[in-house]
Amino acid sequence: MMLGGIEAGGTKFVLAVGTSPDSVLARHVIPTHDPATTLAEAAAWFAGRGIGALGIGCFGPVELDPRSERWGFITTTPKPGWADCDVAGYMAAALGVPVGFDTDVNAAALAEHRAAGGGAGSLAYLTIGTGIGGGLVLEGRPVHGIAHPEVGHIYPRRHPQDVDFAGVCPHHGDCLEGLAAGPAILARWGASLSDLPEDHPGHAIIADYVAQACHLLFATTAVGEVVIGGGVAQTPGLARRVAARARELDAGYLPGGARHAVIRPRLGGDSGIVGALLLAQGTAGA
Amino acid sequence: MMLGGIEAGGTKFVLAVGTSPDSVLARHVIPTHDPATTLAEAAAWFAGRGIGALGIGCFGPVELDPRSERWGFITTTPKPGWADCDVAGYMAAALGVPVGFDTDVNAAALAEHRAAGGGAGSLAYLTIGTGIGGGLVLEGRPVHGIAHPEVGHIYPRRHPQDVDFAGVCPHHGDCLEGLAAGPAILARWGASLSDLPEDHPGHAIIADYVAQACHLLFATTAVGEVVIGGGVAQTPGLARRVAARARELDAGYLPGGARHAVIRPRLGGDSGIVGALLLAQGTAGA
Lengths: 286, 286
Description:
CATH architecture of the largest domain in chain A: 2-Layer Sandwich
CATH superfamily of the largest domain in chain A: ATPase, nucleotide binding domain
Number of helices of chain A: 8
Distance between the termini of chain A: 14 Å
Oligomer: homodimer
């Protein structure tokens, strides 16, 4: 069966069709405008390609409770026009196919879990870019809980060389996203992390915050690895610094800790769209 | 079938038999001595009671990987004599019945999940006593990951009125357990939390640390509730203070947050032993 996938992000939608998550036959990227324009453009690209199921890994917050009338909606996003948007319902109606739907980061986590060998493995996928979000696959299953994880909004300890910056999260000020996402880096140092000189303290500061998130994911969920993706995570050396700092925070204590890893995505930039195709496959098989 | 359960703690073992997790017919408590004495005493109590399966909720760290030769062992505990102790294997050999085995806090989380209605619900059980530990049931399943959660060893932000205390965790100093478990409270203020006057700043300080743990459990795992048990959690007013502080930390942001709850155990002090009987039931049915 031909599968369709959408990696629905706040700045762009990545569309793909393939006969399996590994076999992408065509791919297309459109900018994220208002919902009516963007969703219509996406539906038009899929029309006539004969897909039998569609998977959507979506920016959020989203509604994932299958018992809810708002399943498949983006709910309370500050992004203009997108709050209360029925993304899954629109695409299902436009294309007449079953739709699988999850967060963008859960889709990426599913794809990375499969790339790591699948089975009962446990990992987290953390994206560090314009915002910070996390997806979880525990013992082979994506985690939703009563909604979905929002790992970007935990409160790391302030780094001793970063005590004056108030943080840029409109909700929490100096939560992880408010301290370590791209806009927070730009606000403090006027450049992206990869553009800062190698000896700039920003590298250790951001690595410390991300490492605290990795440590608490290891401690609270016992994942074996945290995969860090997104634009900021592409900074050379960051994953290595984060891994070293997370080991310091653990101090050899956590059970299974010797196997803890902080790594870059096995699928490079494709985790999200491969995850969307996996969601399509899961829906088609359901 | 008659079920046996052991809530294996560092200071006492609670033993029980019952025809179901709700129907305890007999119960017995023994102090935790060295493993040989304690396990023999436990086995002797069960002998002749006709149990068909045994469940053990055990202090840890423990090995939970069913593929490991050390499944059912306590692994690296500092408690004298108990490191590398084959708890499940001893009891299986002594009683000749199948043994279900998990952490004490996962057992308690399972029991509280069932008491809350069961099904696909998600909750965390946090015990705050001599140490701090957490169990997780997500969408109806206990979480093991590659080992098991150790929520006590995350690093909360220091409270502004508690900046000088170094913390008492031998591994991490001022991690959650090093700041908010019973020994840390005693070290700072010379009394248990429930013995401090109502206007003592310790109440707000400990509530803040526990609330940070609740917030990060809500944020990372999207549980609907955190059940707080253990001796410190019996302090009048603590659960209410923690719930209020966790709401402040969320600031109305997290998806599903309106349904977040911090509560005392529905089963009172019985969560652990009921959970052990549930583990027995699960093994008997497997």
